[in-house]
Amino acid sequence: MSFSAEEIDRYARHLVLREVGGQGQQRLKAARVLIVGVGGLGAPAALYLAAAGVGVIGLADADVVSLSNLQRQVLYATADVGRLKVDAASDALNALNPHVQVDGHALALDGSSVDAAIAGYDLILDGTDNFETRMAVNAACVRAGKPLISGAIGRWTGQVGVFAGRPCYQCLVPEVPPDAETCQAVGVVGALAGVIGSMMALEAIKWIVGAGATLEGRLLIYDALAAETRTVRLTPDPACPVCSGYG
């Protein structure tokens, strides 16, 4: 897989990195990544993956851009209010990097649609804001043997984890919490979405090029108010209904 002179200039800072180089940039160009939820987390993740030269970026989201999104969803502008997020995001990403193919899927993923949605992708990023979708995406990734990068934010706290087989996301969250909070109800500081979404993109780039140690089997928790991070190791749940039957 060759690069044009324009691509060599565009990706120059990657090409001189020992951990990326030409081979890593080729892996990025060949990669197919699906972002589920193009909101607070998916928006910055999509920007950095497009800038990095990921060859195919899929966007799955049924929502339209609302004015309240613009406090944290930096992929969109005021003129995008009312447009489908996947359409507005595709335009912005193509403007950022015309060498990237962006495929929009204006649908909400649930048990009946998620398997088909992830089938054509190598790596899945989940930045959705409800546990039902997160669990459906996780289960589909386990069934298909695809790695999942999951992020979440609320108030001043965010988290990122990488799941590849066991443990899976449902080992971390066995069932939907009855008192689950939403950003709409409790609020979220806008810049936190940029921090966690960028971390998700960084983990994806590391995974694709094989650089360093990813967060596989671990959860990074960031407390923005205290300016502190901690990482906890996750263990498989032997009774997990999703991954206990997989090696």
Architecture overview:
There is one protein chain. This protein has one domain: Rossmann fold (3-Layer(aba) Sandwich). It has ten helices and eight strands. It has helices at 5-10, 12-15, 21-30, 42-52, 85-96, 114-118, 131-144, 169-172, 183-186, 190-209; strands at 32-36, 56-60, 101-105, 123-126, 148-154, 157-163, 218-223, 228-233. An eight-stranded mixed beta sheet has the order 3-2-1-4-5-6-7-8, with helices on both faces. Strand 4 (123-126), helix 7 and strand 5 (148-154) form a beta-alpha-beta unit. The protein is globular.
Short structural description:
This protein has helices at 5-10, 12-15, 21-30, 42-52, 85-96, 114-118, 131-144, 169-172, 183-186, 190-209, and strands at residues 32-36, 56-60, 101-105, 123-126, 148-154, 157-163, 218-223, 228-233. With 247 residues, it is an alpha/beta fold.
Attribute tags:
247 residues, alpha/beta, Rossmann fold, 8-stranded mixed beta sheet, 8 strands, 18% strand
| Broad CATH class | Alpha Beta
State the helical fraction.
Answer: 25-40%
Question: What fraction of the residues are assigned to beta strands by DSSP?
Answer: 15-25%
**Terminal residue distance:** 34 Å
Question: Which helices and strands appear, and what pairs or packs with what?
Answer:
Layout: H1 5-10, H2 12-15, H3 21-30, E1 32-36, H4 42-52, E2 56-60, H5 85-96, E3 101-105, H6 114-118, E4 123-126, H7 131-144, E5 148-154, E6 157-163, H8 169-172, H9 183-186, H10 190-209, E7 218-223, E8 228-233
Parallel strand pairs: 1-2, 1-4, 2-3, 4-5
Antiparallel strand pairs: 5-6, 6-7, 7-8
Helix pairs in contact: 4-5, 4-10
